[in-house]
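All the exercises in this workshop are built on plain-text protein records. Instead of coordinates, the fold is spelled out as a row of discrete tokens. Once this layout is familiar, the rest of the handout is easier to follow. The record below serves as our worked example for the rest of this section.
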Amino acid sequence: RNGKASNGQRRGVCSCASGRPCDPLDRQFNTLVPWCLPHTGNRHNHWAGLYGRLDWDGFFSTTVTNPEPMGKQGRVLHPEQHRVVSVRECARSQGFPDTYRFFGNIMDKHRQIGNAVPPPMGRAIGLEIKKCLV
């Protein structure tokens, strides 16, 4: 209970967190922390941004095509709720109106949004091209 196993050891944490050698058999079975986070962090800037939450007062650093918490491309967790951001929230971050419809499954929709040129940017570029031609 409360993070301790019946033998008194902490549950859900790799044994190397308390200075003991890692047990490869425990890799993904009895830990809450994915094995790659503590064991490969030195090679990857300690996985900065991994499992990161968005900030209410901040912005999306990038809109990703695959909102996977283990992804290296950006923060995808909701600022308060225990979930990744929704398709609609990602669309809003790109400037799509709420009336815009995306088609396909959830992954297809995230891919469409992540690969899109934000509509406000497309409009601004179009207006600048129009100014040059007129």
Summary: DSSP finds four helices and no strands in the chain. The radius of gyration is 21 Å. The first helix runs from residue 36 to 40. The chain has two domains: 1-48, 49-134.
